[in-house]
Specification:
The complex is a heterodimer of chains A (about 120) and B (about 110). Chain A is mainly β. Chain A contains no helices and eleven strands. In chain A, the strands form two sheets. In chain A, strands 2, 4, 5, 6, 9, 10 and 11 form a seven-stranded mixed beta sheet that branches. In chain A, strands 1-3-8-7 form a four-stranded antiparallel beta sheet, with no helix packed on it. With about 110 residues, chain B is mostly beta strands. Chain B contains no helices and eleven strands. The radius of gyration of chain B is 13 Å and the shape is globular. Chain B starts with a strand and ends with a strand. Classes of the chains: A mainly beta (about 120), B mainly beta (about 110). Chains A and B meet through strand 5 and strand 10 of A and strand 4, strand 5 and strand 10 of B.
């Protein structure tokens, strides 16, 4: 059974950047699209973007265009999300999620989340 | 972007109750809809995809219906472990969007 293990909590200052990693254990992510989402404190889910299985194609929500970069290392079964120019509104739990085999816009395996706090 | 509107935002119910949550899309999405359950401090869990297909391992008391713009999630007999927040998500087009959530609380 695949598990997605995310990197640890981060505290950043406004204007800084953060990179969150997501490593699969148990089964490789080969052939799967991967999503990144976030959830601000007490708020709902917000989709950030998707990366294809080979890592050479991404699609980002307009809100994050220019600030987010998603990459993957197939040799280590790891995907990454880099978010720059952080502001206080980026304080949230960030999740990676594997696209479902039923259709790649559903998400069937999720990481436990990485808390990113942006504060001066 | 497709807007997803859930109602109610919260519902109080007792164990054994039948609970229905609705989700409306701002434009037609055929059956490209999923439902997720999220418990406090945990990641979401996929319950239903393609509007009515039960994800493997999910109890059969959960069911989904609808197509086009109007969808429902039904819990036929609420169990203690079902108290959580439920989200709908459209899978018709990017950007993927979610409803605001429905919190199912203990009456």
């Amino acid at each position: 059974q695949v598990q997605l293990v995310q990197s640890g909590a981060e505290v950043k200052k406004p204007g800084a950047s953060v990179q969150v990693s997501c490593k699969a254990s148990g089964n490789p992510l080969t052939g799967y699209y991967m999503h990144w989402l976030r959830q601000a404190p007490g708020q709902g889910l917000e989709w950030m973007g998707i990366i294809n299985p080979s890592g050479d194609s991404t699609s980002y929500a307009q809100k994050f265009q220019g600030r987010v970069t998603m990459t993957r290392d197939t040799s280590t079964n790891t995907v990454y999300m880099h978010l720059s120019s952080l502001r206080s509104e980026d304080t949230a739990v960030y999740y990676c999620a594997r696209a479902s085999s039923h259709y790649y816009y559903y998400m069937d395996v999720w990481g436990k989340g990485t808390t990113v706090t942006v504060s001066s | 972007d497709i807007q997803m509107t859930q109602s109610p935002s919260s519902v109080s119910a007792s164990v054994g109750d039948r609970v229905t949550i609705t989700c409306r899309a701002s434009q037609g999405i055929a059956n490209w809809l999923a439902w997720y359950q999220q418990k406090p401090g945990k990641a979401p869990n996929l319950l239903i995809y393609a509007a009515s297909s039960l994800q493997s391992g999910v109890p059969s008391r959960f069911s989904g219906s609808g197509s086009g713009t109007d969808f429902t999630l039904t819990i036929s007999s609420l169990q203690p472990e079902d108290f959580a927040t439920y989200y709908c998500q459209q899978a018709n087009s990017l950007p993927l969007t979610f409803g605001g959530g429905t919190k199912v609380k203990i009456k």
